[in-house]
Design goal:
Hypothetical Protein Yqey, Chain: A, domain1; Arc Repressor Mutant, subunit A; 150 residues; mainly alpha; 7 helices; globular
Length: 150
């Protein structure tokens, strides 16, 4: 389980004196505990892998957003630690699908559902994202759906 492995990774990072990994794992463990509490469960419980993937994806998106904002403000010294944390978070996420793989899934789903118009794109994108659950970037899926429906 992802949540358990992150918690177990904290002492390992301490022993290895890997400050960046330690900080990243601690922040992820905190985010996951907050998610458990938000779901009205005991803080000592663990998230399922699907729930943990949602937290990891959120953390990844937060880091990407921070990096973008820091670089836009020419604050590279602040962007660097975020990039290091993002690398560690991405190690925990499942490998993301390529654009070609996403196109194959979208085309198959289009044939299955009969969706052809742009007006149905929102609902259709949601259905594709449900099928790909964590394996593909949402922005890329939306881009592929929009390009195939026009």
């Amino acid at each position: 389980m992802i949540h358990e492995s992150i918690k177990a990774g904290i002492p390992d990072a301490m022993r290895a004196k890997d400050a960046v990994r330690l900080q990243t794992y601690r922040s992820l463990a905190t985010a996951m505990t907050n998610e458990v509490v938000a779901k009205k469960r005991m803080p000592s419980e663990f998230l399922t892998d699907d729930e943990a993937l949602v937290v990891l994806k959120r953390a990844s998106n937060q880091r990407k957003d921070s990096i973008q904002q820091y670089e836009a403000a020419s604050r590279n010294e602040l962007a660097e630690p975020e990039k290091l944390e993002l690398t560690i978070i991405e190690e925990l996420l499942p490998e993301q699908m390529s654009r070609e793989q996403i196109e194959e899934v979208v085309k198959a789903k289009m044939l299955e559902t009969g969706v052809t118009s742009k007006s149905e794109a929102g609902k259709f994108t949601g259905a594709v994202m449900q099928e790909l659950k964590g394996k593909a970037d949402g922005a890329l899926v939306k881009e592929v759906v929009d390009s195939l429906l026009t």
